[in-house]
Amino acid sequence: MPLRLVLASQSPARRKLLHAAGIEPDVLVSGVDESQVVADRAEDLCLELARMKAQAVADRLRPTPDGRTLVLGCDSVLAFDGEILGKPADAADATRRWGRMRGRTGVLHTGHCLVDVVHESHVEAVASTVVRFADVTDEEIAAYVATGEPLAVAGAFTIDGLGGAFLDGIEGDPGTVIGLSLPLLRRLLRDLGLSITDLWARVAPGAQEIRPLG
């Protein structure tokens, strides 16, 4: 039975990560109002938002008799110094955050919810990665914020963009920081009786044909 993955996210980083792993998802933006969701724990917040995004998109899809559709919702937040940090409100907010974060550590949590549209079921989990921020200068912070990159991402930093130079290291899966953990996705698919290899496109990212073993 053909298997289709729908990514309930407009994040180009998540889509790029899937593409590099041989997966070509369709993309439908959920339209969920994230500001209406509150939680005391970062893990609970990101998982609730991932669940809402996935379900909102799944509700717009109809099961097809000759195929199986999965919807993946993800959301990331940074737990830092007892606070839950999503995207900065503006440049001033991003600058203040970096002034606090430099030289310290935080934990980036990414919630994942995978909905099986045909069987009306779902599986979900959170991936967490410790992030060590570099002791950057005021001038570096100002230059980084001026690029606009930190304004568009949870925690006001990236690992796969300009912000990667301002991290001293991580402990955990780097995909979690980008916004989607491939190892966790593999485990969620397994819980649905599927393999991540079922999602591989016929042609790999390097234009090499993927051939089944045996």
TrEMBL record:
Enzyme active site: 75 (proton acceptor)
EC number of this enzyme: 3.6.1.9
Catalytic reaction annotation: a 2'-deoxyribonucleoside 5'-triphosphate + H2O = a 2'-deoxyribonucleoside 5'-phosphate + diphosphate + H(+); a ribonucleoside 5'-triphosphate + H2O = a ribonucleoside 5'-phosphate + diphosphate + H(+)
Protein name, per record: Nucleoside triphosphate pyrophosphatase
Record keywords: Cytoplasm, Hydrolase, Nucleotide metabolism
GO terms under biological process: nucleotide metabolic process
Organism: Micromonospora rifamycinica
Cofactor names: a divalent metal cation
PANTHER family: BIFUNCTIONAL DTTP/UTP PYROPHOSPHATASE/METHYLTRANSFERASE PROTEIN-RELATED, BIFUNCTIONAL DTTP_UTP PYROPHOSPHATASE_METHYLTRANSFERASE PROTEIN-RELATED
Organism placement in taxonomy: Bacteria, Bacillati, Actinomycetota, Actinomycetes, Micromonosporales
Function (record text): Nucleoside triphosphate pyrophosphatase. May have a dual role in cell division arrest and in preventing the incorporation of modified nucleotides into cellular nucleic acids.
Subcellular localization(s) per the UniProt record: Cytoplasm
GO-annotated cellular components: cytoplasm
This protein's record includes keyword Transmembrane helix: no
